[in-house]
Amino acid sequence: KNQVEQSPQSLIILEGKNCTLQCNYTVSPFSNLRWYKQDTGRGPVSLTIMTFSENTKSNGRYTATLDADTKQSSLHITASQLSDSASYICVVSAYTNAGKSTFGDGTTLTVKP
Amino acid sequence: GAGVSQSPSNKVTEKGKDVELRCDPISGHTALYWYRQSLGQGLEFLIYFQGNSAPDKSGLPSDRFSAERTGGSVSTLTIQRTQQEDSAVYLCASSLVVSTSGQFFGPGTRLTVL
Fold first, then answer.
1. How far apart are CA A35 and CA B1, in angstroms?
2. What's the pLDDT tens digit per position in B13-60?
3. B4 in contact with chain A, both atoms CB, cutoff 8 A
4. Beta strands A102-103 and B65-69: pairing type?
5. Contact flag B42-A97 (C-beta cutoff 8 Å)
6. Does chain B have fewer CB atoms within 10 Å around its N or its C terminus?
7. B59-75 burial by CB neighbour count: b if 16+ within 10 A, else e?
8. Does A29 sit behind a cis peptide bond, omega within 30 degrees of 0 on the bond before it?
9. What count of CB pairs under 8 Å joins A to B?
10. How far is A101 from chain B (nearest CA, A)?
């Protein structure tokens, strides 16, 4: 069964600090892995998309890594800002039935001043 | 349009009533998806459409739920005889193609069934 597990479930950090969110998956055959940011009351917004051959991708202060061998991904946030407070969702797609992605439950990040 | 739009943004209905939720995808996007997100929960896949192919309805929780996509663009999600457990945010997303392109989400419709 395809699964995506994210950790930690929630995280509180001080403004300006860095943090790393984890995503482990068992989706196969792997097509791509996406990280989304979802602000409260809003729809998710894409941060990064990585395919099998990519092991790192950056979007501003967000850097995602992918290890397709161990089926792990991480999202690193540098110099956090209050506006980074949100839920971060890891989504993995398989080549078979690519329209039915597997979503993680998300990590809720709170950045405090 | 510039992004995915959904209407209404909020819907309050009485148990047993039917509701229709609308999604306008990004122009030119061939794939359209519906998800449900209960309070504090992750996204639950409901259905997706790809071009003129038959939709994947495998995520629809019961036969009270149905969706259609007219002319390959606008989609409507219909919930018949609503129940209190249907209360959730219903999110629509679209993508250029199904396989490798990212999905762009709308703001969602918050459905409350009293």
1. 24
2. 999 999 999 999 999 899 999 999 998 788 999 999 988 888 999 999
3. yes
4. unpaired
5. no
6. N
7. bbeeeebebebeeeeeb
8. yes
9. 56
10. 8
